[in-house]
Structures are given as C-alpha cells and as structure tokens.
Recover the amino acids of this structure.
C-alpha cells in the first residue's frame, strides 16, 4: 500500500529516486539498469517518456460514482494529446525529459505531463519498438502490461523494472492523482474498461495486470470484473490482506494527527515500509569513490564503516529517511491518505470468495517475507488456495516495497514461473530467428519463452568460463560425405522458415555421468550457431513452479530448474517435443535420461537408451532432421564411489530419506510407452568425487538422419519397422561418435591440462586438437 518512489539529495549528486539507488547498487557502470548521472549530452533510449494517456473523464475527481461508472467505457481511451492544446504541450514538455530526469523527480514529471491532478488515467512511461525487430511497419504485438500502483498512486514505484519489462511487454501505468476521490469499485471498473478496450483494439494481443500493494487489491477486483479479457494477473505484496494486518487498526488515526506529528510519521514508518539498512548500503555504494558505483551494495560493510567513518553512514541514513519523508508527505496529504484507506477497506470487503472464483487466468503472486506492513507471505498462500490457477514466489528478506528491491527481477520471475503469455506467430518468428511455425498449428505450449538476457548470460559466465579454461572443449561436426571439421559448420541451419527449405533440427545424444558438461554443450551450440537450443529435461529438474505448480525445487529458490528454464529448458514429454518441433525450435534430447546420467559402475560411455522410438516418430511427423551427437571427457573427471544401486542398499539412517525422496519423483511421460522407457530409472543420485583428472572435453555432431518425407525414413510414423530402423540408425551414429572420440583423443597433444593451458596462455586462443579425418 505504501510502495513509494521518493527523491533525495545526497552530497554532490543530482536528485535521484530511491529506485535509482537500488539500480545503481545492483549493477555496474555498463549495466542498462544503472541510474545514470548527468554527464553532458547523451542519446536518449526512449522516444517519449509519456507515449499515451487515457483517462475516464476530465471531471472524474469530482463526479459521483454513477457518473464515473457511466462515463468510463466511453472516455477511457481519450488520449492526452487529442484534446486541448495544453495537453499536447504537456506531452511535448515531458518528451523533452530524459529517463534520468524523469526518474529524478517523479512528482515534477507527473506535473509536466499533466498527470498531477484530474482523474485517474493510463500512460506509457517508455515508448520503444519491440527489441527483436527493426521493421517499422510491424505492429507491436508484445503483451500489454498495465501497472496498478500502490497507495502513492503515482505509478513510479515500479520504475526500477521499466527497462526489463519493456523488453517483453508494452507497458502502461495507471496514475491516481492525490486529489482524486474515485471509489475502489469504480477504480476497478476503470481498469476493467481499459482492459476491454485494449482487447477490442488488438484481439490477438494478451492483456496482463500487475498490481502492487493497493494496486494488487484493485487488480484482483478488475480481473474479477473483466475475467474474460485478462490473460495474466501479477500481484506484488497485494493489499487484499489489509483487513488482517495490524496496521488496519491504527491507520485510520493517521489522517487526524496534528500536522507536525503527521510530518514525522514517515520516519516512524520507514522501517516498516522499506529496509533502511539496505537503502543505506545502496546510498553508500552509489556515492563512494567520487560517485563511481560499486559492483554491489552487498560489498558495503556497514560495521566497518561505522568504525572508520560513522559520519558517512549517518549522512547516508539521513538521506534515505529525509527523502522518504518528503515523498510520502507530498504524495499522501492527510485527506488523500484517508481516502486511500477507504479504498483498502471497501476493496477488501468487495473481494469475497465469489469475486475470486471468477478469476480464471493464470496468476503469479510475489511476496516479501519481511513485509512488516502486510502479512504478504500468508496472503500469497491464501490466494494460491483461493484462485484456480495461481503460483507464488516468496522472497526472503524483502520488505513491502518489493518491486524496488534489487533482488526482484519481475520479467525474469515471470518467465521462470512460465507466466509469460503466448505470443502471436509473427512475434515468435522475430524472437530468436525466423521459425517455420505455421500460425494454424494447434500446439503452442512453449511459444512464450524469451531468450536469456544479459544478466542471465553474466550469471552463467561465472561458472562456464572457469570450466572452459580447465577443459577447453572441442566441437566437431561431420558432413554427409563423412568429412569431419572443427566447429559446427556441418550442422544444418537452425530456426528457419519452412518456405526456405530448411527443416526442424533435433539433437540426440548421450549423457555423461551427472551431466556435468551440459552447460558447455548448450553454450557451445549457441556460440557456434547463434541460436538457443531448447533442452528437454526431466520434469523434476525443470518442473518447479512453472510447470508443476509448486514453489520450490532442486533448481533453486525460484522453483526447480529455474535457471535452466531461463535458457529454454522444458519438461520432457512427447507433447513437449511435438510442440517445440511444430514451432520450429531446435531441440536437445537425451534418450538415456536420468538412467544414463546416473549410470552404474562399469557403464562408462555406454548408451542406456529405452527401446521405444517415440522421438523418431515425432521427428518424422514434423519433417525434422535428427543430429546424433556424442560427448566424452567429463565422465573421466569423476570417480564413482557408490552407484545408485549401492546407495539404495545403504542402511536407512544413511540413505533412507534420499531413497524416499527419489521414489516420490514422478517420471516423464513419453506417450503410451512411458513405463517401458523408464525401466530402471531412479532419481537417487550416485556418490561421485573429482579425481583430479582435468582432461579435455570433446563434442562430436554426426551427419543428420533425415526424417522428412523426402528422407530414407519417410514413413516412420505409420510403419513400426521403419521407426525401429530409424531409431537404430540414430543410436548407431551416436555410438560411432563415441568410438571416434574415445579413439582419436589419444592423438591430441593437448589432451592433458598443463600443455593445453600453457599453449592457450601463450597464444590467447584455443589449443589445436587431434588431426581430423
């Protein structure tokens, strides 16, 4: 309810918002989210900070509820610059502001845009072309995301998220001026009417609501009102729990405080609404070294600074508190606060079980477990039970102003939890490279994936680079005539349209022990082809919150396999494979699955594949090319102390809990033959230890098996014998690749670590490998 974006004036700095402190503290100088200081003329990233404004009525602030309701549908789309000359001037004035100036003083920016007074209205803070296209004639078919603000009503509280949101969504913000007195139900009708209008304008475009705090309550009411038109609902510490919060008992007395006491109220509430310690760290991180930002606010040791320079800590804390105080008083005069509290009370009363039951869209609830204002974590659990299609994400150590916290990346968590709406076929073709997807195809389960962002790549780089330096992976590929070349020049083109004559590509190969080479494989494919290959992985690894509906898993805090999902992984199943191939996505499949990754002793480099050729039939159905590949090297770096069967036989006090967890894991479903394919598979991990052998890693991509109608196995879908023959051929070529690498790597003069590292340090490039033949 009190998610605020406020300004302050630290020494030798231009005024900045609290959000911009968070940005500067989180990222380094080159990061696009960093709060930039004025350094002279610079090229702006945005054509117009205010791109569109729609309002229900120019007199809505004084109109009755009936008048607001009746005028909403007719006037909600009145753009700011379609009326008076002054409105056009306001837009031009704000268009002259840079993003830095816009963020430095949100209230002044609202005034410049004509948004400080009048009725509630919708506006676009940033106006950019879709990032994946330069075609000026193409319509922008990104989903529309409408942000509903908290108690401050400005719409600026989420500004830290604007840049990343705009890469995936068209963004509009609702502003509720301080003088407006529209009721909770009429605000919900205004939002619902805007949603309906957006659907009429572009029927195929998804419309999503993001509500923070009070805005979360209004978004729930609006989603109930416009249930058929809302495609996704995102809630951040929603105030639907206000009636159960301790603050509800005392908040009504705040507007009747004497003026001096009311002005001191923000200082008392600061520890409740924000985290002053975190904020102080970010101010210091932003101001040390003559204003050069540190890599992270976590690098600031407050205890050490309190000893060495307590004055700097005190100044930073004072900057945080005084800025927070000023913004709270400006955004929430006493009369405005009284009305906003009325909105909370009336909204909670209206949001009954029947209203929640009408919300059928997929919902994602973000909650901070350190929210001292509202019981947000408990409310997330309640909403998950009350809403039919809801997932939740709880952030540890995050307070009420959740979208301002640097640990929260809204766009990333939306993708991790599979909550990004499906895109029209034309948008999918832009996303990576043109796909062969036919807009009439019925399966679109995974067409809502967006490629990794720079932050994701940087995170992956932290463990891939050291691994690459130690093992110097070699990628080889084989032409149809048998010639082997270094690199992936012989691999068929990826992600091309059917009209170009290219075909979908399915990579099929072996798992090494514990699949430690998977990151290098994915990264190498991307580096050599420019495309992200969609991996099909066990549902236990990538299911998590997004696919399984849960909230935790082995892949990390954000749900099982959240990091893998950022890089395109999906739960393996026959339907998943068919969906990806029908979209033209290049796919990566390990038929041996967990059984091969958790191989037993004396099974080194053995293909442990199921008997049923389900993936061959899927490839044939979509005219795909199957590229068999082999990988060796990573398995030699580990010694298997206890394999899965030996771990299972351990006494109960040693391995009982692990056995029970493994036995509770549900396996993938690859058509009707699932049980036969999963024979002997267990998610009980073996015990393996590094043996100190830092041998080189090798990847060999064989000549493709053509499963199209013009290929040798054209009728594999209908003929079981042809399908079996195609399956045997794919497996034979994988085995050939293994044999080739195991035989030829002994001729690599740089197979061992020391000569390889010495060569690469001296020449600054990857060391040569064995002679190719």
């Amino acid at each position: 309810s009190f998610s605020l974006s406020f300004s302050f004036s630290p020494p030798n700095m231009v005024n900045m918002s609290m959000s911009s402190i968070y940005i500067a503290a989180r990222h380094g100088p080159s990061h696009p989210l960093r709060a930039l200081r004025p350094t002279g003329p610079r090229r702006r990233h945005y054509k117009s900070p205010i791109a569109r404004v729609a309002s229900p009525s120019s007199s809505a602030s004084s109109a009755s509820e009936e008048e607001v309701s009746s005028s909403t549908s007719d006037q909600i789309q009145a753009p700011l610059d379609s009326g008076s000359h002054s409105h056009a001037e306001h837009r031009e004035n704000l268009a002259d502001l840079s993003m830095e100036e816009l963020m430095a003083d949100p209230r002044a920016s609202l005034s410049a845009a004509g948004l400080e007074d009048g009725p509630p209205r919708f506006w676009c803070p940033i106006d950019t072309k879709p990032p994946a296209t330069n075609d000026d004639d193409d319509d922008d078919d990104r989903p529309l995301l409408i942000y509903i603000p908290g108690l401050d009503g400005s719409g600026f509280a989420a500004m830290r998220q604007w840049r990343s949101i705009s890469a995936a969504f068209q963004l509009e913000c609702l502003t509720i001026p301080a003088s407006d007195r529209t009721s909770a139900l009429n605000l919900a009708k205004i939002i619902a009417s805007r949603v309906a209008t957006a659907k009429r304008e572009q029927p195929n475009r998804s419309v999503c609501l993001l509500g923070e705090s009070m805005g979360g309550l209004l978004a729930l009411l609006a989603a109930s009102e416009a249930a058929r038109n809302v495609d996704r609902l995102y809630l951040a510490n929603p105030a639907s729990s206000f009636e159960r919060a301790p603050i509800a008992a005392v908040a009504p007395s705040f507007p009747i405080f004497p003026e001096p006491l009311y002005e001191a109220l923000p200082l008392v509430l600061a520890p409740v609404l924000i985290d002053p310690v975190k904020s102080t760290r970010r101010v210091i991180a932003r101001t040390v070294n003559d204003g050069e930002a540190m890599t992270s606010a976590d690098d600031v040791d407050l205890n050490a600074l309190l000893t060495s320079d307590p004055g700097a800590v005190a100044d930073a804390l004072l900057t945080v508190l005084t800025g927070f105080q000023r913004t709270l008083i400006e955004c929430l005069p006493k009369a405005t606060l009284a009305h906003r509290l009325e909105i909370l009370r009336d909204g909670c009363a209206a949001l009954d079980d029947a209203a929640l039951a009408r919300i059928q869209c997929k919902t994602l609830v973000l909650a901070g477990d350190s929210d001292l204002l509202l019981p947000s974590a408990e409310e997330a659990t309640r909403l998950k039970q009350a809403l039919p299609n809801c997932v939740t994400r709880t952030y540890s150590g995050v307070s009420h102003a959740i979208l301002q916290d640097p640990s929260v990346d809204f766009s990333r968590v939306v993708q991790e939890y599979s909550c990004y709406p499906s895109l029209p076929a034309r948008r999918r073709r832009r996303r990576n490279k043109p796909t062969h997807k036919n807009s009439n195809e019925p399966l679109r389960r995974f067409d809502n994936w967006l490629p990794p962002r720079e932050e994701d790549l940087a995170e992956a780089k932290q463990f891939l680079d050291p691994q690459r330096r130690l093992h110097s992976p070699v990628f080889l590929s084989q032409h149809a005539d048998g010639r082997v070349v270094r690199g992936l020049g012989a691999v068929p083109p990826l992600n091309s349209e059917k009209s170009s004559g290219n075909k979908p590509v399915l990579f099929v190969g072996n798992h090494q022990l514990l699949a430690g080479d998977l990151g290098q494989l994915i990264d190498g494919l991307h580096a050599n082809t420019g495309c992200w290959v969609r991996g099909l992985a066990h549902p236990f690894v990538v299911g998590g919150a997004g696919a399984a509906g849960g909230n935790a898993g082995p892949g990390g805090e954000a749900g099982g396999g959240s990091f893998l999902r950022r890089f395109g992984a999906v739960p393996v199943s026959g339907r998943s494979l068919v969906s990806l191939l029908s979209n033209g996505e290049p796919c990566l499949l390990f038929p041996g699955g967990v059984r091969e990754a958790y191989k037993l002793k004396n099974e080194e480099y053995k293909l442990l594949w199921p008997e049923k050729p389900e993936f061959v039939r899927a490839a044939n159905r979509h005219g795909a090319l199957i590229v068999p590949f082999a990988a060796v090297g990573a398995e030699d770096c580990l010694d298997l102390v206890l394999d899965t069967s030996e771990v299972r036989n351990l006494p109960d006090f040693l391995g009982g809990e692990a056995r029970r967890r493994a036995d509770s894991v549900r396996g993938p479903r690859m058509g009707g033959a699932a049980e036969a394919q999963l024979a002997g598979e267990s998610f009980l991990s073996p015990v393996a230890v590094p043996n100190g052998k830092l041998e080189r890693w090798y990847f060999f991509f064989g000549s493709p098996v053509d499963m199209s109608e013009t290929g040798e196995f054209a009728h594999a879908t209908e003929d079981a014998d042809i399908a079996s023959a195609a399956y045997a051929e794919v497996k034979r070529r994988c085995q050939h690749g293994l044999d080739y690498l195991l035989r030829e790597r002994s001729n690599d003069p740089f197979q061992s670590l020391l000569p390889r590292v010495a060569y690469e340090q001296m020449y600054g490039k990857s060391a040569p490998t064995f002679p190719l033949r």
Notes: DSSP finds 31 helices and 22 strands in the chain. The radius of gyration is 29 Å. The chain has a mean pLDDT of 75. The CA atoms of residues 278 and 403 lie 14 Å apart.
